[in-house]
Amino acid sequence: MTATLDPRTRLLLEAPIAPTLLRLGAPNVLVMLAQAGVGLMETYFVGKLGTDALAGMALVFPAVMLMQMTSAGAMGGGIASAIARALGARRRNDADALVLHALLIAAVFALVFMVTVVAGGRWLYTRMGGSGGALDAALVYSNWVFGGAVLVWLFNTLSAVIRGTGNMALPAYVTVAGAVLLLPLSPLLIFGWGPLPGLGIAGGAIALLLYYLAGSAVLAAYLWSPRSLLRPSLRGLQLRWALFADILRVGLVGTVSTVATNLAIGITTALVGAYGTAAIAGYGTASRLEYLLVPLVFGLGAPLVAMVGTCIGAGQRERALRATWIGAAIAFAMTEAIGLWAAAYPAAWLSLFNTEPAMIEAGSQYLRIVGPWYGFFGLGLVLYFASQGAGRLLWPVLGNIARLVVAVAGGWLALHGGYAIAGVFAAQAAAMVVYGIANAWTIAGGAWFGPVGWPRGMAALLRRLPQG
């Protein structure tokens, strides 16, 4: 029976779990670090334009990350999960048809983001504390990026489709090559050279869109080539609600979680805005490191989505849970190490982008208070990705909503209770702990398949980990 399986599918079902996750995750971590590096390069070059430009980018960043995380993480996870489960259950025709269904979903979401943010950007960024030069910079950057939202969605959707087949390497190669290309392109468009005039902050946005355009072309060429495991075709295709639902039932619930994550950042930005433009720039630059953790954990989470989805599609529930806890341990260790480094040496990160003293002071406060708790954020996030693979997202989403409530309510109480900006940041740390513990507790307690017995069932699973 297994002889008929594609080698990539057999790898997910039969190979040792930890080495397989690390091997598949390595190129995917590379791809996500490269993608995060794209944003960091932009921040570095835009920071050379001054504090107003840096604060303007900080205002737009939660909205950009909402689109990124929705397209790559939430809907992307739903796409990868649906394709992985179809391949695991040997429904090859459904897997092929899911590609075009996914692209249609991406087109609709891209239109929604474009219309909503371009039309409502001024209102949004003003409410987040933007004014003067910072607000002007935010609107220029936002209008360009969201005007080209379809390119972001196309790139991340094609990447998710390919990852759903177990191929993590190609998106990595494409993203890294694009980041290398962007390194000279971004400053060229921002500052100009010779007869080419500098476009300022708009140049950074245009360079980013060119990156997504080129990457999408390469991914599409592969997907419709003989080397691809999938064979998407318009010939004889009939749109089926069941296939849309297979993606959306994971993707839409995941979108709620993504909105909660970015809403927490956006509202915190608004609270920090009470302390001025330099505080916004400091918090926005510091929280970039938190956003760097998202693609880093996603690099591990993407193969976990494929492994968990494929195992569940094949009826191997116990292996799916073993993979989940191994991935959780790796993610916690990885993100906690980064958080402890950031808390110990905050200026090493912040000074890469700007050296204005007030900005450095605000950002350093954030990293010293929140950094030591990053491991819980990584734990909660990787369990969210594993839940995508299982097609069971209710509890992880509720965990993220709990995080939002703690972050916003705690931040508001701190601000109005006289605890100043440090109290706002302490609320963010507490929210991360709530997020990680809530996700771990509910999955260990049987949120996917019914009660497994806490803690006895958890102990039994842990005893079997070396066998994976």
From TrEMBL:
Keyword Disulfide bond: no
Keyword Iron-sulfur: no
Transmembrane segments: 21-41, 53-86, 98-119, 139-158, 170-193, 199-225, 246-272, 292-313, 325-345, 365-386, 393-413
Superkingdom: Bacteria
Membrane association type: Multi-pass membrane protein
MF terms in GO: antiporter activity; xenobiotic transmembrane transporter activity
Name of this protein: Multidrug transporter MatE
